[in-house]
Write a structure and sequence with these properties.
Layout lengths: L1 H17 L1 H9 L7 H22 L5 H11 L4
Helix pairs in contact: 1-3, 3-4
Length: about 80
């Protein structure tokens, strides 16, 4: 979680200064069309959510559980 936090914070700061339009466009594009920064951000988010949910449940994480945690911990466009 700590590693993910560092990556997330660095990339969030980049997008705060460049505007939300760029962030929104990067979020709706398929992964292979996203910027390297957005791919790194999304991977860090997945790592963070996985770490939190594994710690809480220790079981297999369902898609809906992952989606809910993503919305809970990260702002959505």
């Amino acid at each position: 979680m700590a590693e993910s936090e560092d990556s997330i914070a660095a990339i969030e700061n980049l997008y705060k200064t460049s505007g939300t339009t760029k962030e929104f466009i990067n979020n709706v594009l398929p992964s292979f069309l996203q910027s390297a920064e957005m791919q790194k951000y999304n991977q860090a988010k997945r790592n963070f959510v996985n770490a939190v949910l594994r710690n809480e449940s220790g079981a297999v994480i369902s898609d809906s559980e992952f989606s809910n945690a993503d919305k809970q911990y990260f702002p959505q466009p």
